[in-house]
Amino acid sequence: MAAKNQKDMEIHEYANGEVTLLWKPKLCIHSAICVRTLPNVYDPKARPWIRPENATGDELIEQIAKCPSGALSVKEESKMSNKLE
What we know:
By secondary structure, the chain is α+β, with helices and mostly antiparallel strands. The chain has 3 helices and 3 strands, in the order αββααβ. Strands 1-2-3 form a 3-stranded antiparallel beta sheet, covered by helices on one side. A hairpin with a 3-residue loop joins β1 (12-15) and β2 (19-23). The radius of gyration is 14 Å and the shape is globular. The termini are far apart.
């Protein structure tokens, strides 16, 4: 049953062109590490409250690794090939 709950969990996606940030609000414990680490990205008073375009992909990945609850995660964007045939 736990697997079904994880599958059905609400997930919000925010992209900056390098990475897509995933936020699972039901897992969030509101430690505010994200807000303190990258205040230009995470602003709980703004809508949308997550603005990944205000940081590099590397900065987001580094910050997300510090999320204690696992509410924040990241998936890398696939790179398009510029090959001419």
